[in-house]
């Protein structure tokens, strides 16, 4: 695999990230361990933002924090002058605890609770992306109670099927998200909110999917949404000021993936939007995008320690690590594919075909099937690439495994940003059935 970011292999065959030997990281912090290459995150964020600046296009680049949420990550997003996309009370609370600017937070979600909406109003966040008619009714009532005007976007399903996995395609008509563009739901929602005294309608939002490797679907989405915005201006005299085209920009997990540079996605979006606006004499809206995976995905590497192995003559060879589906559910959930390197044998020939198995009590707990790696033994360190998105954020305590630690690395320095869970953490919220003693059956 050709490395991205600051990864290299030194003369001893050891994997180096940001100038730090990954064997030293594993020794200091233990495994499993998520390691984030901060320089690569900064490079990706700057590429998105600088392209908008170079093309003199008003924009907001919002980090889609469901990819990886933590106080440190939110602080880094603030440092990079990003906006923020949150989808739950927990993400919003964490962002506010980190000191992230309230006015740059956008709140998504298809089933926001009244508690979540109240919290967003009370904290006066930047925008709520309204997803359905129920939310319109609840939000209208709450805003009247608070006598507060909230900026909103209407989320749309534009009827576009991106070339991606079924479970991560969200722009087609048959989706749990948003108002359908084709059947008139979006127009109904527009009529309900356009003159609401406490709803400040900014524009439209669409997210067509994830792991998208071309720009055609984004251009088509921009075209369909802009035509609707032009129609509203013509028929109702209402001008939308924001067009949010979501995220979904692909990254390279394996050699089968061929993503475009971040700048290319943005350039093609801007060209499509400007072309349609000029043709329709429509004022250029502020373009918002929501990269998540493309900011942190391949900046993340998970380090594991090799344990047991099993040889089945003529069939398969298994090598087990000290993590698995508890820290990376994507292979089991999406059949996601990953590449890896033995971090202490990076200069050894990769001539052994193995399946990397996790330690969870599930036959489907396989992180990588059929990968050529050097011969391994217990105690070796395996580094799985591109685990920065939806690894830690989807981690669980299945089998009562403790969630891993997370470190940021940059310029030869490492910083622990999420502690490894302790055994005490596993039972911290639990109560005994009997107050006086522990029941043993």
Automatic annotation (TrEMBL):
Q: Where are the transmembrane segments?
A: none
Q: Which residues bind substrate?
A: 293, 330, 334, 362, 390
Q: Which UniProt keywords apply?
A: Amino-acid biosynthesis, Decarboxylase, Lyase, Lysine biosynthesis, Pyridoxal phosphate
Query: What reactions does this protein catalyze?
Result: meso-2,6-diaminopimelate + H(+) = L-lysine + CO2
* Residues that, per the record, bind pyridoxal 5'-phosphate: 248, 290-293, 390
Ranges for domain Orn/DAP/Arg decarboxylase 2 C-terminal: 34-388
Which residue intervals define the domain Orn/DAP/Arg decarboxylase 2 N-terminal in the entry? 40-296
Which residues does this entry mark as bearing N6-(pyridoxal phosphate)lysine? Answer: 66
Q: Can the keyword Amino-acid biosynthesis be found in this entry's annotation?
A: yes
Stated family: Belongs to the Orn/Lys/Arg decarboxylase class-II family. LysA subfamily.
The record's note on quaternary structure and interaction partners says: Homodimer.
Query: What protein am I looking at?
Result: Diaminopimelate decarboxylase
**What is the species of this protein?**
Paenisporosarcina cavernae
Where is the organism placed in the taxonomic lineage, from the top? Bacteria, Bacillati, Bacillota, Bacilli, Bacillales
State the encoding gene: lysA
